[in-house]
Specification:
Layout (H helix, E strand, L loop, with lengths): L7 E10 L5 E5 L6 E2 L2 E3 L6 H13 L7 E4 L2 E4 L4 E6 L4 E10 L14 E4 L1 H4 L6 H14 L1
Parallel strand pairs: 1-8
Antiparallel strand pairs: 1-4, 2-3, 2-9, 5-6, 7-8
Length: about 140
């Protein structure tokens, strides 16, 4: 079990796979590792809004999640997974969305300078956090 801290940061990450089961990864400019697009939620932002914003900011792709109105409520897409990460002084609560998309070439922002569509075989040679690598394998076995 992960150690829980009083301080928690909420984040969203979008794992996008094409028809060839390749995942879109970006090279994180500060961490130097390959990650799916994502980031921290802003104050008062819904998870689906944050996921859409992060994908647009980082790779230039417009993303719209379906919403459904039920009487006086709105039903939004739930995350496919939730990761609780121990960052030594706080937790990241990372809400993970998994999408199957058509292959496209991203328009990178000023912060992101590199991207790639990676197969499961290519992931072995890439610099990834182990939890990212493990989750990609799990998604491929459960959802494809």
């Amino acid at each position: 079990m992960v150690k829980m801290y009083e301080k928690k940061h909420f984040a969203v990450t979008v794992y996008m796979f094409n028809k060839d089961k390749e995942i879109l990864l970006i090279k994180h400019p500060k961490l130097g590792v390959w990650l799916p697009p994502g980031g921290h939620l802003e104050k008062n932002e819904l998870p689906t809004e944050g996921a859409s914003r992060e994908v647009l900011e980082e790779i230039g792709m417009g993303l719209k999640f379906r919403e459904e109105t039920l009487d006086n409520t709105t039903l939004i897409k739930s995350p496919d997974y939730t990761l609780i990460e121990d960052l030594k002084d706080h937790n990241h609560i990372d809400l993970i969305y998994v999408l199957k998309v058509k292959h496209f070439e991203p328009t990178l922002d000023n912060e992101i300078h590199d991207h790639r569509w990676a197969s499961i075989k290519e992931l072995k040679k890439m610099d990834l956090f182990e939890n990212t690598r493990t989750l990609i394998k799990r998604i491929l076995s459960e959802k494809f």
